[in-house]
Structure formats: C-alpha cells, structure tokens
C-alpha cells in the first residue's frame, strides 16, 4: 500500500476541521464587514467618552494606578477642568470668560499663521464658526487640530515658548487701552504615542493663557495605519476623517482674525453633533 500524505479521516479530525473552517468564515465575514463599513461611510466619528471625569471614575473602579498625564487641570469638575493647574488663579466669572477665550483663539490663530504652522478649528469651536464665526457664548473650551507633521515641528522648535499678544480696547469711550497678554505653547512629551491611556494622553498640546490658565486644546491628526488604511486620519480620541474631508483647508475668519476650517466642515459637524446641530436655533434655553 502507498503511504498516504494525509492523516486518516477519523471523527475527531473531521470535527476539528469543521470547527476551523467555521471559525475562519466568521473571522473573514467580520473583516469584510469592517472593510465595507469603512468604505461606505466617507467619514467615521464616534462620540468620545467624557474624558475629564475619567481619572476619578478609573480610580474608583480599578486597582490599577491611573495612567500618567502631562496636562493637569485645576480640578475634575466641569468648571475646574478648563484651567491649567499651573496658572490657575481662580474661576473666571461667566461675564468675563468669553473675553478670555476670544483673545486665546485670536492670538493662537494669528501667531500660528505668522509662524507658518498650519492649523484649523475643530469640534465645538467649528460649530461656533459655522453659526456665527464666533465662539458660542456658553463654550468654555476651544479646540483646534494640526497634522502630526506640524505637531512634530512645533515640538522640536516651539515647545514651552512664550508668545506676546497685544490688543487695544476702547470701552465706553474711556480712551484706547492697550493690553499685553502672554501665551504658552506647551507640548505633551508623549504626543506621538498612539495610546489613549484612558483619556490621559489625548491632548497633544495646549496654548495657555498664563494669566488665567484657560487654554486651547490642540490635537494632531495622523494617518495611523498608512498601509492598511491610507487616507484615513484620526486623533487619539476616535475622531476619524478622510484626507479630502480636511484638505484643502478653507480660508475664512473666526472672531475677527484669519482662520482655516476643514473643507468638509458641514459633514464633519453632522457626523459629530448630528443633523440638528446645523438646524436648531435654540439650545438649553
Ligand atoms: C510618557 O510615556 C512614558 C513611557 O510609556 C511614561 O513612562 C511616562 O510616564 C509618560 N509621561 C506622560 C506625561 O504621559
Ligand atoms: C516640552 O517641555 C517641557 C518642559 O521642559 C517638557 O517637560 C516636555 O517633555 C517637552 N515636550 C516635548 C514634546 O518635548
């Protein structure tokens, strides 16, 4: 008898073979499904978990130590999470916070442009731009994005640099007053690390008002997986975009200074905040 190349077909062998085939089919169909959902929706976006309360939540459920974090806020509450702890001098009253935010974003956009660093407005700040070209009166945070290569350049040449900003006001005909402000550009040393670390590592850089501790959050978009998913850009907080959703950026203005927004800004806003965000003219009264 010729020696067989194959093992004898016994019942256990047959069962093992069936299990293997079924498992491969399941895995294959999962992969195809993921692939098709990627190509059918041109923009993917998942609402991020509530970042700011994570340290406390994590500490109460886990025996693991909290992950390291570079930027520390003045506290975990909604109110305190808008200040960098190093510069926190006290909570800014509601009537004054808009002023602080306006000068933060004007200085950031203008100084980045003068340094030839490409940046654009994002998230809630983009929604404010869409409606009014301004910060929403109830907003407490400002969000901008850069590409990973811009962030690398910033980290190399501008980390921990201070930038002066002067502006004049003429309130109630009191005569023109000049105010000088200073802002700090600070870059997270682990910006290039892909891990979110339970939300501890999602902010890549900040533009901080050194008088109040209020800031602009800067996050970088990178092609995380250029071989498998070319042209898919994402931050560490699950927001994903295609190259043509962002570039070429649209030139516009925001709070009276020159600004840039993503090309597909409406689609991005609908993906992030829903259709109603571009329709409803009332919010929380
Ligand atoms: C940065 O990453 C290193 C290596 O994982 C870690 O030891 C360090 O604590 C991290 N620092 C911050 C500020 O995230
Ligand atoms: C930026 O500078 C600070 C202070 O020197 C440092 O702790 C941080 O690691 C630096 N960030 C980068 C990206 O090098």
Automatic annotation (TrEMBL):
The chain crosses the membrane at residues 12-32. Its main location: membrane. GO terms for cellular component: membrane. It comes from the Eukaryota. It is a single-pass membrane protein. Signal peptide: none annotated. GO terms for biological process: glycoprotein metabolic process. InterPro entries: FKTN/MNN4/W02B3.4-1, LicD/FKTN/FKRP_NTP_transf. Residues 116-223 form the LicD/FKTN/FKRP nucleotidyltransferase domain. Keywords: Membrane, Transmembrane, Transmembrane helix. It is found in: Membrane. This is LicD family-domain-containing protein. It comes from Apiosordaria backusii.
């Amino acid at each position: 008898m010729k020696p067989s190349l194959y093992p004898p077909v016994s019942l256990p062998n047959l069962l093992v073979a069936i299990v293997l085939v079924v498992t491969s089919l399941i895995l294959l169909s999962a992969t195809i499904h993921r692939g098709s959902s990627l190509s059918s929706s041109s923009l993917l976006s998942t609402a991020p978990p509530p970042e700011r309360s994570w340290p406390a939540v994590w500490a109460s459920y886990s025996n693991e130590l909290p992950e390291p974090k570079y930027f520390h806020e003045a506290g975990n509450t909604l109110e305190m999470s808008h200040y960098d702890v190093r510069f926190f001098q006290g909570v800014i009253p509601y009537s004054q916070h808009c002023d602080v935010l306006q000068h933060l974003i004007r200085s950031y956009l203008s100084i980045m442009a003068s340094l030839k660093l490409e940046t654009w407005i994002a998230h809630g700040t983009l929604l404010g731009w869409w409606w009014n070209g301004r910060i929403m009166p109830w907003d407490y945070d400002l969000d901008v994005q850069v590409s990973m290569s811009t962030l690398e350049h910033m980290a190399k040449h501008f980390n921990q640099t201070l930038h002066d900003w002067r502006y004049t006001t003429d309130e109630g005909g009191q005569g023109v007053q000049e105010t000088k402000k200073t802002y700090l550009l600070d870059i997270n040393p682990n910006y290039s690390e892909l891990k979110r670390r339970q939300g501890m590592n999602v902010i890549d850089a900040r533009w901080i008002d050194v008088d109040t501790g209020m800031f602009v959050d800067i996050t970088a978009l990178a092609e995380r997986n250029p071989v498998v998913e070319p042209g898919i850009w994402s931050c560490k907080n699950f927001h994903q975009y295609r190259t043509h959703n962002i570039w070429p950026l649209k030139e516009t203005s925001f709070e009276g200074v020159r600004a840039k927004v993503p090309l597909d800004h409406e689609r991005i806003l609908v993906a992030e905040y829903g259709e109603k965000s571009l329709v409803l003219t009332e919010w929380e009264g």
